[in-house]
Amino acid sequence: MIAGLVSSVFDRGAKSDRSWVAYAGYDISVRESGSWKGKGRLTKRGNSYIRKRLFCAAWGAMMHYPEVRRYYDSLKAAGRNHVEALCIIARKLLRIAYAVLVKGKTYDVKIAFPA
Q1: Tens-place pLDDT, residues 14-35
Q2: Distance CA 14, CA 21 (A)
Q3: Is the C-alpha dihedral spanning 102, 92, 9, 6 positive or negative?
Q4: Residue 105: other Cβ atoms inside 10 A
Q5: pLDDT at residue 8 tops 70
Q6: d(CA 63, CA 68)
Q7: What is the pTM of this model?
Q8: Strands, DSSP E only, in 1-115?
């Protein structure tokens, strides 16, 4: 499902996976000034439809794939809440899709989600 959505919407001539992440609105905006450190937040400037579908794909992957579930549990153990952890997984899935579709790399779950 995600491969069909990604391949139909995203530009395969993109220079980097960061442009795909920005297009989906999953890039992080950090506000800092001098010694003051702000909190990073999603920009949500991108396509909301794609962002929602990627979030659902991350949720489904977390529910049905043990490797993704271990990664989710490690994020939760590190102090991330449920939505943050799923957004991190959604970004990761989008970067994996970029590597497979544009760079021509093969998907290896042991590399994508190491134990």
Answers
A1: 778 888 888 888 988 887 777 8
A2: 11
A3: positive
A4: 12
A5: no
A6: 8
A7: 0.84
A8: 28-29, 32-33, 36-37, 41-42
Residues 6+ apart with CB under 8 A from 60: none
44 alpha carbon, distance to own chain's centre: 13
Cα separation, 80 vs 103, whole angstroms: 30
Residue 89, domain extent: 2-112
Rg (CA), the chain: 15
Return the axis-axis angle of helices 82-101 and 2-9, rounded to nearest 10°: 60
Which of 115, 10, 110 shows the shortest CA–CA distance to 54? 10
The tally of domains found in the chain comes to: 1
